[in-house]
Design goal:
The chain is α/β, with parallel strands linked by helices. The chain has 10 helices and 15 strands. It has a 9-stranded mixed sheet with strand order 14-13-12-11-7-10-9-8-15. It has a 6-stranded parallel sheet with strand order 3-2-1-4-5-6, sandwiched between helices. A hairpin with a 4-residue loop joins strand 9 (224-233) and strand 10 (238-247). The longest helix has 21 residues, at 188-208.
């Protein structure tokens, strides 16, 4: 049996990672794609040898025999597209952020629950083998009780040079889009968190456990910005998340964890690179560092395989809608804390 899929939203990330990944999954059949720009839909269909393309996703949902959709529309369209697909009985994989607002996230969860379809969120860091290994070691107690968890995301001036290593040109509309996927709220701090920080909101909760409270500060000067957040966890650990740009050097993203029995550190690679993240653990009792070889890393392929597997086996995908909602609450708490200059409990959001 193969899962019949359609992709909605043929922008850069769909062309760069999702469509090539879908072509590699034997259990998946990519039936059709959709984009509001006909020249994009047609061009992408030709490039990836997809028989059918649409400019109206509702028409596609009604006409095609589909099991699920891959929702790679821009942020502001995530909720509407997901809810409509759920009404048509289709399972949904939606790229991060889950939506723009918390209320939209709740509506998406309810629509999928009501129509008995699966909802998975594209937090691909959960499928980085190095980060999965670190989480397993945290969960089995190798580091002991955690007391400090830090992560950071520093965007680089040469970001697009990395992208050009994979493709020189994307198929784009002749006229630029009327709105940008990266400015859905008009608040720069929140927009930056929605675009990039939401990954770490999920990562830190996935590894460190539920987050109780945050205190954040946001500063900007021209194109440069720094968002620094102190995080308190329910398990009494503390730490920070810092998102900043634009640094005049190589991409820099990572994670550090300190526990009563040991420590862990991960240098996270640029997401489109297949090269492994570098992770190692220090075990205090043994007085030695431990690492594992993870020769291959395609997080986008792994998460889509998981989504297809869950449909075939009728299992709950992870990360699910609740995980997306909690990540959304964390970034809204960070934004609110910076604006109001006070600690914000996640329960306030």
């Amino acid at each position: 049996m193969r899962v019949k899929l359609a992709l909605i939203g043929c922008g850069s990330i769909a062309q760069l990672v999702h469509l090539p990944a879908l072509k590699r999954i034997e259990e998946a059949e990519l039936v059709a794609i959709c984009d509001i720009y006909e020249e994009v839909a047609k061009g992408v269909a030709e490039k990836f040898a997809i028989e059918k393309y649409y400019t109206d996703y509702v028409e596609m949902l009604e006409k095609e025999d589909l099991d699920a959709i891959i929702n790679t529309t821009w942020h502001a369209a995530h909720a509407e597209t997901t809810i409509e697909a759920a009404k048509h009985g289709k399972h949904v994989f939606v790229e991060k952020p889950m939506a723009v607002t918390i209320e939209e996230c709740k509506r998406m969860i309810e629509a999928c629950r009501r129509n008995d379809v699966k909802l998975m969120i594209g937090f691909m860091k959960r499928f980085d083998p190095a980060l999965k290994w670190i989480r397993e070691e945290v969960r089995n107690g190798s580091l002991g009780e955690l007391f400090l968890i830090n992560s950071w995301y520093y965007d680089s001036l040469i970001h697009m040079d990395y992208v050009r290593a994979f493709t020189e040109q994307f198929i784009r509309p002749k006229e630029p889009p009327a709105s940008s996927p990266y400015t859905p709220t008009g608040e720069r701090h929140l927009d930056l968190l929605l675009a990039h920080g939401v990954h770490h909101a999920d990562l830190l909760r996935w590894i460190g456990g539920e987050i109780r409270r945050v205190r954040s500060c946001f500063k900007e000067r021209g194109q440069d910005y720094v968002s620094t957040t102190i995080i308190e966890y329910e398990n009494e650990a503390t730490g920070y998340f810092q998102q900043a740009g634009i640094i005049r050097r190589d991409w820099d993203e990572g994670l550090i964890i300190h526990g009563m029995k040991g420590s862990a550190e991960v240098k996270i690679r640029f997401p489109y690179f297949k090269w492994r993240s570098e992770a190692r653990i220090y075990l205090a009792e043994r007085k030695e560092y431990v690492s594992k070889l993870h020769p291959f890393r395609d997080m986008y392929l792994a998460e889509l395989r998981h989504f297809v597997h869950c449909i075939l086996k009728d299992e709950e995908p992870t990360p699910n809608g609740y995980d997306g909602l909690m990540a959304q609450k964390i970034i809204y708490a960070i934004s609110k804390s910076a604006k109001e200059e006070r600690p914000i409990s996640i329960n306030e959001i």
